[in-house]
Specification:
Layout (H helix, E strand, L loop, with lengths): L1 H4 L4 H18 L1 H32 L2 E10 L2 E10 L7 E7 L11 H10 L3 E5 L16 H16 L4 E11 L1 H12 L3 E7 L5 H7 L3 H21 L4 E3 H4 L4 H12 L11 E3 H9 L13 E7 L7 H10 L4 E6 L10 H18 L4
Parallel strand pairs: 3-4, 3-5, 5-6, 6-9, 9-10
Antiparallel strand pairs: 1-2, 2-4, 7-8
Helix pairs in contact: 5-6, 7-11, 8-11
C-alpha cells in the first residue's frame, strides 16, 4: 500500500500503513476478535506454562548444595556447602554456622538458615562436630579447643573456594556454638563479622550458674574421680547430656518440644558426653579473648530468662568487647525460644542487617 501511494516521508508511510490496518479491522471486526481469542487461548495453554516451568527451574537452580569434607587435625569433618550458582561479582562473603551441643548439621533450622544466606548472596557452610553425624572422631568427646580448631580449618576450607572473598568471612553460632564464635573471632583475624546467639563466656561460671551449690560440688568431685580413672584406664566415664547441661523443668520441656518437632533428632535424646568434656568446658573462657575482636564486628543475642546459657554470661562478654559491637537481650525469652518462628524471623532480620554492614553485602 505504501509503495502504491508513493509517499515521500517515513512519517507519512507509517501513518498510511496504520490507517490501512484500522480500515481492515473495521471491515473485518468479527475475524479480528476471533483471531485475538485464539492467540489469548494459545498464550494461556502453551506459552504461560512454559514460562512458569522456566521460572521454577531458575528458582531451583539459584543455588547449589553439595556434601563436602575437610580435614582438621587428621580428622575428616563432614559438611554441606551452600553456594550461589552465579554471582555478579568475582567473589562473595562466606559464613560458617556453628551448632549447639547436638552438633549435627541438619538439625534445627540450620539448612534453612544456610539457604537464606545464599539468597543474601553468601556462601554458607554447615558441618557436623567431630564425633557426631558423618564426621570422624570419638563420640561424646566435645572439647571446646578442638571445636575451635575445626572452625578455623573450616574457614581455611572456605578460603580455598574460588567463589569466596577471603576478606569477608563471618561466623554465626547458637548455644554451645555461640561460645565458640567469640573465641575464634578473638584469635583469628580472618573473621570480619560474627554473631553469637544464646552463648556463654566463661565455662566454669557457666557450669556453676546452672547448678545448685551441692550439684556443683558433686560435678567437681565426679570430674576429679574421672581424671584419676583416665590415668589408669585411658577412658572417661560417659554421662547424659542432662548430666552436663542441667536445667529447670520448664527448660527441659521446651527442649523436648523442639526435639519432638524434628523426627531426625530421636537419636539426640540419648546423647552422652564424657566427663572429660565437662572438665574441658570448665577451662574454656571466651571472655578472655573478646577484647581482641575489635576493630572487627560482633553481635551478641541473649535470652533474658535463659537457664541453659544465662544472659549474664553474654552481657559479661559484651562489656569486655570493644566497638563495633551490639547486644540484644530478648525480653521474656528462654533458651529454646530462639528457635520459635517469630523470634527466628527477628533474629534473621537483625543478622541480615549486621552482615550487610560489616561483610559489605549489597
Amino acid at each position: 500500500h505504501a509503495k502504491q501511494a508513493a509517499l515521500d516521508t517515513p512519517l507519512e508511510l507509517y501513518t498510511s500503513a496504520y490507517q490501512c490496518l484500522l480500515d481492515y479491522c473495521r471491515k473485518n471486526l468479527t475475524s479480528v476478535i476471533i483471531l485475538l481469542k485464539i492467540a489469548a487461548s494459545y498464550m494461556a495453554s502453551v506459552i504461560r506454562p512454559l514460562l512458569l516451568s522456566l521460572t521454577i527451574f531458575r528458582v531451583k537452580r539459584s543455588h547449589m548444595e553439595r556434601r563436602v569434607f575437610f580435614n582438621s587435625d587428621g580428622i575428616r569433618i563432614a559438611g554441606i556447602l551452600f553456594e550461589p550458582e552465579a554471582t555478579d561479582n568475582d567473589s562473595c562473603p562466606a559464613i560458617m554456622l556453628c551448632q549447639g551441643m547436638v552438633g549435627v548439621k541438619e538439625y534445627f533450622w540450620f539448612p534453612h538458615l544456610a539457604r537464606r544466606l545464599v539468597e543474601l548472596g553468601c556462601v554458607a557452610l554447615i558441618w557436623d562436630y567431630r564425633g557426631v553425624g558423618e564426621s570422624e572422631g570419638e563420640p561424646g568427646r566435645l572439647y571446646p579447643l578442638e571445636q575451635v580448631e575445626d572452625i578455623r580449618n573450616g574457614l581455611t576450607f572456605l578460603e580455598t573456594n574460588p567463589k569466596v572473598d577471603p576478606e569477608r568471612l563471618g561466623l554465626m553460632g547458637f548455644s554451645f556454638g555461640a561460645g565458640m564464635v567469640p573465641y575464634v573471632a578473638g584469635i583469628d583475624e580472618r573473621v570480619k563479622c560474627s554473631i553469637s546467639v544464646a552463648g556463654w563466656g566463661d565455662g566454669e561460671r557457666w557450669m556453676q550458674s546452672i547448678r545448685r551449690y551441692y550439684e556443683w560440688l558433686d560435678l567437681l568431685n565426679q570430674i576429679e574421680d574421672d581424671r584419676k580413672t583416665r590415668i589408669e584406664t585411658g577412658m572417661s566415664e560417659m554421662v547424659s547430656g542432662g548430666g552436663i547441661l542441667v536445667g529447670d523443668p520448664t527448660t527441659a520441656a521446651a527442649r523436648q518440644k523442639v526435639i519432638d518437632q524434628i523426627p531426625e533428632m530421636e537419636n539426640y535424646k540419648g546423647t552422652s558426653y564424657s566427663l572429660a568434656t565437662a572438665e574441658k568446658l570448665l577451662d574454656f573462657k571466651p571472655i578472655s579473648v573478646v577484647e581482641r575482636i575489635s576493630p572487627r564486628a560482633i553481635m551478641y543475642i541473649a535470652a533474658e530468662l535463659d537457664s541453659v546459657t544465662p544472659a549474664e554470661g553474654v552481657v559479661g562478654m559484651f562489656e569486655e568487647t570493644y566497638e563495633p559491637k551490639k547486644l540484644w537481650v530478648i525480653p521474656g525469652a528462654t533458651h529454646y525460644d530462639v528457635y520459635r518462628e517469630d523470634l527466628k524471623e527477628q533474629i534473621w532480620d537483625m543478622s541480615v542487617a549486621w552482615f550487610k554492614e560489616y561483610l559489605r553485602i549489597d
